[in-house]
C-alpha cells in the first residue's frame, strides 16, 4: 500500500495556498485532477509532473 504524498498548490483564483495529496499509484510521471480551493471554493485543475532532476513533483493550477 502506497501512502499519498503531501503537497500544496496556490489557487489560480484567489492566490491562497491549499493542501493537496499526490497518489503515486495513479502514475508517477504525470497526474491531473480537479480540486476546489479550500478558501474561495473555485475549482482548480491541478497538474502534477515528476521532475527527475529535483526528484519531486511540480504542481501547477488553473481555474477550470
Task: Describe, in plain words, how this protein is organized in 3D.
- With 64 residues, the protein is mainly β.
- It has one domain (5-63).
- Helices cover 0% and strands 56% of the residues.
- The chain is built from no helices and five strands.
- The N and C termini lie far apart (31 Å).
Q: What is the secondary structure topology, with strand pairs?
A:
Elements: E1 5-10, E2 17-22, E3 30-36, E4 43-51, E5 56-63
Antiparallel strand pairs: 1-2, 3-4, 4-5
How many H/I helices? 0
Distance between the termini: 31 Å
- Total tally of structural domains: 1
Residue stretches low in confidence (pLDDT < 50, at least 5 long) are none
Cα shape: globular
Taking the sheet with the most strands, its summary is:
3 strands, antiparallel
Major sheet: order of its strands?
Answer: 3-4-5
How large is the radius of gyration?
A: 12 Å
> Which band does the percent of strand residues land in?
over 45%
Percent of residues in helices comes to under 10%
The total strand number stands at: 5
Protein traits:
single chain, 64 residues, 3-stranded antiparallel β-sheet
Amino acid at each position: 500500500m502506497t501512502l499519498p504524498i503531501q503537497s500544496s498548490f496556490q489557487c489560480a483564483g484567489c492566490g491562497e495556498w491549499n493542501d493537496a495529496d499526490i497518489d503515486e499509484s495513479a502514475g508517477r510521471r504525470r497526474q491531473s485532477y480537479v480540486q476546489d480551493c479550500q478558501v474561495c471554493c473555485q475549482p482548480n485543475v491541478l497538474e502534477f509532473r515528476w521532475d527527475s532532476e529535483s526528484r519531486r513533483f511540480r504542481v501547477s493550477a488553473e481555474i477550470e
